[in-house]
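The authors assume throughout that readers already know how a fold can be written as discrete tokens. For illustration, here is how one protein appears when written out as sequence plus structure tokens.
>
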Amino acid sequence: MKTLYLECGMGAAGDMLTAALLELLPDPDAFIAELNALSIPGVSYARERSVKCGVAGTRTTVLVRGEEAHEHTHEPAAEHHHDHATMVGIRHIFSHLPLSARVRENALSVYERIAEAEARVHGVPITDIHFHEVGTMDAIADVTAVCLLMDRLAPEEVVVSPVHVGSGVVRCAHGLLPVPAPATAELLKGVPIYGGSIDGELCTPTGAALLTHFASRFGDMPNMEVGAIGYGMGKKDFPRANCVRAFLGHTRGETDTVAVLSCNVDDMTAEEIGFATERLLEAGAREVYTVPIGMKKNRPGTLLRVLCDPESREKLIRLIFRHTTTIGVRELAMERYILTREVETRQTPYGPVRIKRSSGYGVSRGKVEYEDLARIARERGISLREAKALLEEL
């Protein structure tokens, strides 16, 4: 399985994640040119070599109308005089960037996480959250870059280390706030984090939002064959190398463990069961399915079964109780035999096409990614079967 491991021993910020992922590409300068070709209003990207504690890596910078913005918290600074932006304006900006639907959706989801966290911290609706223009465009640039890089690298699993958040205080518009800043702490709920002796804000709201959006899970580095390593440097100097380290490779395990959560219900409508299924999948369940069953007093009922990572089971159990009428949830731990999976991108006359390849236990197979097949079918006005036949002829 193609796996990306992000080591956040010095926290994470949007520019550090951009730089670390950029180093995993064969031609980082070409990708910087692609970013600048997006023509984000007033924004330009650059990269440079950076050395921290004797370790060489990459530092990326975003200039907004020639000014380098520095992200700390996203709160508006009353003493500055930049224009403000709201989530409506941010959605408008993303809607006009030449991004694929998948990248745009990821970028909006990340930024909405930030806005929702700020709204909860300040106790106001999202519509009342305003951001300064320079800070907003800097964050939009970082979010766009990371979402494009993740789409280009296409890892099947993203594992993130526990996040070092730093210590001390950070200055914002309203005065001094403890580290992690309230919005960052809100975004990192449920994530393993730690402080330490390093004085400063190591994880920013943008970094926290990106990590929590893309992470499949948080934990130690898995057993993996590493093919590339990237060092994304921060601007500040600390006693430790101030960087995010990214490892891209393949995990070769042929088994894993899944938690199986089950409950029986006989007093829910089909719409309610469908809604519960959607919420569970959105929360990270690997699979959710139902089976018709017979229950007490000859009542027809439904068995709801949820497959998930063991680390996610408590969160999903809470959601099962919230969205169903059950009063009990059963749990089993099962070992699962799996094929090694990777995604290959092929350039075709119909655009780039991703192929999921699986192998192991004496079998090998490949399947075109549905979204790419559907895109070809829509663009050419043909059926999925005809689109598949076109690719098979290549």
Observations:
- Residues 72-84 have pLDDT under 50 and may be disordered.
- The two ends are 26 Å apart (CA to CA).
- The longest helix spans residues 101-122.
- The chain is about 35% helix and 35% strand.
